[in-house]
Design goal:
With about 425 residues, the chain is mainly beta. It has one domain: Outer membrane protein transport protein (OMPP1/FadL/TodX) (Porin), CATH 2.40.160.60. About 5% of the residues lie in helices and about 55% in strands. The protein contains four helices and 21 strands. A 14-stranded antiparallel barrel has the order 1-3-4-5-6-7-8-11-12-16-17-18-19-21. Strand 1 and strand 2 form a beta hairpin. The termini are far apart. The relative contact order is 0.21.
């Protein structure tokens, strides 16, 4: 990360996402869940999930599994962003691009009380690609590549236990592998590629006092993560520096806590409400270390520190997500679903940039599903409508102007039940 604060902001969020599947709100990057049944209800499933979404939301749901099953989930993110900086003559849009993600889950009851499982999924998979010609006025007429990509691969072994007919508990142990690539102007074209691993855990509880009422809790532990990779600066040699350097970033990801309630006012209708809280305030900055001493020295150079000083200053705030969902059974096999989520941004306007736009969203969802004796199929569509962000033209702003992002997220899930 060599240029200005734009790349800086991206690296932070990438580091955060690498370790926490649901920690980061959508904000143009992270999935809002896993499993089309859950997505059709805006992820309001902490109190009752018992399909492939339980690896993402609440591992306690595995204790209520009816037999052994395997499930495949596939989704695609289609972001559409805009950036306008009138004083610079910039009116840009993202290039059309599809960012795929998915999940594979397996659950097997070992007894009436004990269940094990294994989930493999991509909690994050997105990015942004901009036309360098539309942004050249930001960099003195230089036509550069502006592109970002983020992908996270998570493996989660799981165990759940049914304490009683009403109470279930569960835990998943999460191994996360993250990938991030970014290209943008710096001292010439800048490119960075980082990977990182980290271990975390999710603890869950579901309490079902009656057929009509259920409650759920889910807690994700804070996790330490280290991202390492190579950075390239096309014209760094003009400053007496090497064209490539190794970089390291270390940070701690904050805790996440979710609570949900599910209520059935009638046999065919389920209503659900979830509230998720993330302790983003714990993140004030993320430092950077370069292997090259010349790059390190340039971090404090009066003319080039904006390109080389990549310490991430944050000043984030805690955030709360509200999720509301409904499922109506047309008959014993067919269901339709609706949902809504309010997804705020933890970041102040000063850190906004176009490679990782921290946009508040209103998310609307719809879905449908079929459940047979052996096979089930569910589909969903998330529509995230961004709230335009106006970053003032002030010295403290990283990228002033008007920012917005809208996202379409279709998905499908197929499951097979062995018994």
């Amino acid at each position: 990360m060599k240029p200005r604060g734009i790349t800086v902001r991206f690296v932070l969020s990438a580091a955060l996402i690498v370790l926490c599947a649901t920690f980061l709100p959508a904000n143009g990057l992270n999935l809002n869940g896993s499993g089309s049944r859950a997505m059709g209800m805006a992820g309001a499933v902490l109190a009752w999930t018992n399909d492939v979404s339980l690896f993402y939301f609440n591992p306690a749901g595995a204790a209520n599994a009816e037999g052994t099953w395997i499930s495949l989930f596939e989704t695609n993110l289609l972001p559409s962003g805009t950036y306008v900086a009138a004083p610079y003559g910039v009116d840009a849009k993202t290039n059309s691009k599809i960012y795929p993600a998915g999940a594979l889950g397996f659950v097997k009851p070992l007894s009436d009380k004990l269940t094990i499982g294994l989930g493999v999924y991509t909690p994050s998979g997105t990015g942004a690609t901009w036309d360098g010609e539309q942004l050249k006025n930001l960099v003195s007429g230089q036509v550069a590549t502006w592109e970002s990509f983020l992908g996270v691969f998570t493996v989660s072994p799981l165990v759940a236990y049914k304490v009683s007919d009403q109470l279930a508990i569960g835990a998943s142990f999460n191994f996360n592998y993250g990938m991030m690539d970014i290209k943008r102007p710096g001292v010439g074209q800048y490119e960075e590629s980082l990977t990182g691993t980290g271990f975390g855990a999710t603890l869950g509880l579901q309490f079902t006092p009656s057929d009509k009422l259920a409650f759920g809790l889910s807690y994700k532990l804070p996790v330490n993560v280290t991202l390492k990779g190579d950075a390239k600066m096309a014209k760094a040699n003009l400053l007496g520096a090497s064209l490539e350097a190794e970089i390291t970033r270390k940070t701690t990801l904050p805790m996440w806590l979710g609570a949900g309630v599910s209520f059935k006012p009638m046999d065919k209708l389920r209503l659900a409400l979830d509230i998720n809280w993330t302790n983003w305030k714990k993140l004030d900055q993320i430092p950077v270390e370069f292997s090259d001493p010349v790059w390190t020295a340039l971090m404090s150079h009066p003319d080039y520190k904006s390109a080389f000083n990549q310490t991430i200053e944050l000043d984030w705030k805690d955030c709360i997500q509200y999720r509301i969902g409904a499922e109506y059974m047309l008959n014993n096999q067919w269901a339709v679903r609706l949902g809504y989520m309010r997804d705020p941004s933890p970041a102040p306007l000063e850190t906004m940039n176009i490679l990782l736009p921290q946009i508040p969203y209103n998310m609307f969802t719809l879905g449908a599903g079929y459940s047979g004796a052996k096979f089930s199929v569910n589909a969903a569509l998330e529509i995230l409508r961004g709230q335009e962000q106006t970053v003032p033209f002030e010295p403290t702003s990283k990228m002033p102007g008007l920012h917005n992002m809208n996202i379409m997220v279709p998905s499908i899930t197929i499951a097979y039940h062995f018994n």
